[in-house]
Amino acid sequence: MFGIGIPEFILILIVGLIVFGPSKLPEVGRAVGKAMREFKKASRALTTAINAPDEPETTAATPAAQNPKPAPFPEYTPPTRESVAAELQAGTEKTQGGDKHG
After folding, report:
1. Are 28 and 16 a contacting pair, CB within 8 Å?
2. Is 16 exposed, middle or buried (0-12, 13-18, 19+ CB in 10 A)?
3. Domains in the chain: how many in total?
4. Which end of the chain has less neighbouring CB within 10 Å, N or C?
């Protein structure tokens, strides 16, 4: 397992019993077992992904996929004097509202 013998295992159980108490010890054991199972599963998946051969890319794509139609840009409308003046007025009202230095 991890090079843990019977005496070490008994010592770990005694320390766990003292720290967690008899009612929480089974829950802790289940959580540790579940964590170890998930770790082994993830490490197997990573090993498989690393050792898997790369799949060659297919060149038989459809012409539409090779040359997709670019998305059109939205129509640009320049700002008007009124909109710029309103934005400037709103900005000056914010700064004049509560900032009193001095």
Report:
1. yes
2. middle
3. 1
4. C
In a domain, 12, yes or no: yes
* Residue 77 falls inside a structural domain: no
Domain membership of residue 27 as a residue range: 6-51
pLDDT in 10s for each residue of the chain, 102 residues: 567 788 888 898 888 888 888 888 888 889 989 999 999 999 999 998 888 777 666 655 555 556 667 777 777 778 888 888 888 888 776 666 555 554
Distance of CA 5 to the CA centre of its chain: 39
In a domain, 30, yes or no: yes
- Tell me how far apart the alpha carbons of residues 31 and 38 are, in angstroms, rounded to a whole number: 11
Q: What is the pTM of this model?
A: 0.39
Other beta carbons within 10 Å of 97: 8
